[in-house]
Specification:
565 residues; alpha+beta; 3 domains; four-stranded mixed β-sheet; 13 strands; extended
Length: 565
């Protein structure tokens, strides 16, 4: 195989498009689809990846995105632009309304008109060798139907793009590049968002009817485009949604009439745009409710491999949670989680705390901030801010002017001024004061959300077995069912008083650092009078060994009364 040579002369990989369509009754229900039966050769996948890279070099994507996406926008960028436009209308002096239209095509990749695609590639300035290569690549795609041991003759695909190929989305972008030639003409044109085969049209105005009047001409232009270029719309999936703060209009109480391709557009109260479920007032309550259900289902998988006396390592559970459960939250969090009400956001925080209990082995009595901090997880509110920031910046000081007389004198005078001149009573302007207050309150909220009675980790915590890890986490957070005070709150014992000394309530601090009955067992590890902080900052193995020596390996319970004779 010589991929560059094939590319230059326009030769596609051999047998790259053969497809066997099997008898669906022979397949499991979850894979009865044409896409699951498609087989692409290794050479085909490699060469399509190469052509995508070459296309990037030739600047095709830059040309496309520069025209209809205002830069190489990702899905979140498109979502942010649409939602921010709606929020801007809500926050204007006279709150505006908005209508969002979502258009969908039926089997968009399979209906691409190839001759038109090649013409558009030439018009965009795609190199001739790339056009010839793609023509050769698509010309030999064929399929047949196999039923048992019998098979039909091969049928060649005259139109369409290969499903599952990395090249298909790029070719579709080329094909639909001119869809907005007329949509952006004029000041009253709606906001257009195009991402792959998802099309969204958004119009804002003082009334819903004004929004509809701006949208209908754009819909007519798209209708003419799909008819011209033989793209089949999916009328049942083309919907509209209204956004308004007026209780007399929200929830579909007022539905302007819009049509697309001679079909009236249906109204969807909570449409899904690029994976984000929207509602009429952008509260994102519906999206968070659906997201909570998904997170709960995935949490069950983590629960199956996590127990307080068995299961996977807590670092493994933490990685599983971040990659399998929290990844659902991460997508779009910078949009929906920063705008949702605190009560709505708390529903997802509850799901994270349930996963944190699985990771650490802690019980429900544990303080919620302490629980999340013990699991090594930031609160979801802080996680959303981290995602919004986008990048981490680390500053390093480079002593480039060291040992220079003038620079040393300037540094000395600056340090002297900072040390000798009192700044407490120096006046500041109102804007600076507000900025300082916002920064202070933000730092205070972040610190409060991650508070922990023993912030520093216990050395060798991760080297314990699952029971030891869970027990130590319970002791560190202050609620351990092996201690009588916690067992009393759980209703397992009637008296929380320490049975060893009988002097005071047996909490974690009393057991580990204060009970006089365990002085000898304690002295071998931490001396005669250690503090709780000193105990928890020592080796984790010492704490677990101490718990075993004093007989605290099972949940504290009162002895059952003797059986009746």
């Amino acid at each position: 195989m010589c991929t560059p040579a094939r590319y230059n002369v326009g030769l596609a990989p051999p047998s790259d498009g053969d497809l066997d369509v099997l008898n669906c009754t022979e397949l499991p229900p979850d894979i009865r689809s044409e896409e699951r039966c498609r087989h692409l050769s290794f050479e085909y996948e490699l060469t399509t990846s190469v052509i995508c890279g070459l296309s990037l070099v030739f600047g095709i994507l830059y040309t496309l995105f520069g025209r209809f996406s205002e830069g190489p926008l990702q899905a979140l960028d498109q979502l942010a632009r649409v939602t921010q436009t709606i929020f801007d209308g809500f926050e204007s002096k006279k709150p505006q309304r908005a209508i969002l239209v979502l258009l969908d095509y039926a089997r968009a990749y399979d209906r691409v008109w190839r001759d038109a695609l090649y013409a558009k590639m030439r018009r965009l300035g795609v190199p001739g060798c790339a056009t010839r290569w793609i023509r050769a690549l698509l010309s030999d795609r064929r399929a047949r139907v196999r039923w048992g041991t019998s098979a039909s003759r091969w049928r060649v695909f005259q139109e369409g793009l290969p499903q599952g190929s990395v090249l298909a989305p790029l070719l579709w972008l080329i094909y639909c590049n001119d869809i907005d030639d007329r949509l952006r003409a004029g000041d009253s044109s709606p906001t257009v968002s195009l991402f792959a085969d998802d099309v969204a049209l958004l119009a804002t105005g003082r009334s819903l009817q004004e929004c509809a009047d701006r949208l209908q001409p754009a819909l007519d232009e798209v209708s003419r485009w799909v008819k011209t270029w033989k793209v089949q719309p999916s009328p049942s999936k083309c919907v509209m949604t209204t956004f308004t703060l007026d209780p007399k209009e929200c929830g579909g109480k007022v539905k302007p009439q819009l049509s697309f391709c001679d079909h009236p557009l249906g109204y969807e109260e909570t449409p899904t745009f690029l994976g984000l479920k929207l509602d009429c007032q952008l509260t994102f309550a519906a999206h968070i409710a659906a997201l909570r259900e998904k997170m709960a289902k995935r949490r069950a998988c983590i629960s199956a491999i996590a127990g307080r006396s068995y299961g996977s390592h807590r670092s493994t559970l933490r990685i599983a949670y971040k990659s399998y459960v929290r990844s659902l939250f991460d997508y779009g969090a910078v949009i929906y989680f920063t705008h949702a009400a605190p009560a709505v956001r708390e529903r997802l925080e509850v799901e994270q705390r349930k996963c944190a209990r699985l990771i650490t082995g802690c019980i429900k009595l544990t303080d919620k901030e302490t629980l999340v901090a013990e699991a090594g997880l930031p609160p979801l509110s802080l996680r959303a801010k981290e995602l919004a920031a986008g990048k981490d910046i680390t500053l390093h000081w480079v002593p480039g002017h060291a040992d220079l007389a003038g620079n040393e004198a300037a540094d000395r005078l600056a340090n002297q001024a900072a040390a000798d001149c009192a700044q407490e009573e120096a006046p500041i302007d109102l804007s600076s004061a507000r900025t300082a207050i916002r920064r202070w309150t933000s730092e205070l909220a972040s610190a409060r959300a991650q508070r922990h009675p023993h912030r520093e980790p216990t050395p060798s915590h991760d080297e314990l077995d699952r029971w030891g890890q869970a027990t130590l986490s319970q002791l560190r957070t202050g609620y351990c069912p092996l201690v009588r005070a916690t067992a009393h709150r759980l209703g397992l014992v009637e008296d929380p008083t320490c049975r060893a000394c009988g002097e005071e309530e047996e909490d974690v601090e009393h057991l580990l650092a204060g009970c006089p009955a365990h002085v000898a067992a304690r002295a071998g590890f931490w001396g005669h009078c250690p503090t709780l902080a000193e105990v928890l900052s020592g080796p984790a193995q010492h704490i677990i060994e101490f718990m075993k020596r004093v007989g605290r390996v099972q949940v504290a319970t009162d002895s059952p009364p003797p059986a009746a004779p």
